[in-house]
Amino acid sequence: MAAMARLILTYGAALAALALLTQWLDWRHETRGLATSLYVLCVALLFAGLGIWLGNRLAPRPRGDYRRNQAALASLGISPREVEVLDLLAEGHSNKVIARQLEISPNTVKTHVARLFEKLEAQTRTEAIHKARMLDLLP
Hints:
Helices cover 76% and strands 0% of the residues. It contains 7 helices and no strands. The chain is mostly helical. The longest helix is centred in the N-terminal third of the chain and has 31 residues, at 2-32. It has helices at 2-32, 36-58, 70-76, 80-90, 95-102, 106-120, 125-134. It folds into 2 domains: 2-58; 70-134, Winged helix-like DNA-binding domain superfamily/Winged helix DNA-binding domain (Arc Repressor Mutant, subunit A).
């Protein structure tokens, strides 16, 4: 929570600095008579840089050295086939696509998904994937 507050304060300070810079550039433009396109370019570059910086800060970072939580799998009773189905669910595949990739019937996929919902105590695919990630069952 503190990290998010720091990020918000940093972003707010950057926006305030850019607003001040914009006003300063406007004053310089009025007093010096430099080309408007130069000022527009400077402001555009600053905001583009801020956008890139913010995007890098907020984008999720890939986890290094991921190891599936085997203890959680065992305690929940999730089978290896259900793990395969869970991996494909996390990739966003439909039941038909999962069935084709695992070479099983769509009804079998539905059964695996229903059992995963029971074991993870989830009501939706999104909730199941979220809980699986929280338990380190998914990268």
